[in-house]
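Worked Example 4.2. Consider the chain below.
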Amino acid sequence: MDRERLDRALERAFDGGEGERRAVVRAAGDLADSGRLAADRGAELTVETVVRELDDAPEGSSVSERWNWWVGALAVAHGDAYAQFGVRRYEE
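Applying the procedure from the previous section yields the following structure tokens:
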């Protein structure tokens, strides 16, 4: 996954500061590198997938809230191992 491209896409699409986006990009990169999503869903994690999935989160959510909403849905569907990819803290 192209992390710089993801950062730019998240900046255009969702509310959130640079530190918050950086934490989401790092978590998304870790998820992509783990291969877990590809194994569970049969497709690699892409920038387009992240933006599309986060766009489904409740309106008014920040980028990290959207990310955690999606990771929570993945945990329900595929198991608690996805919890490790949540964003818990970030620098403003």
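The radius of gyration is 12 Å. The mean pLDDT is 97. Compare this with Example 4.1 before moving on.
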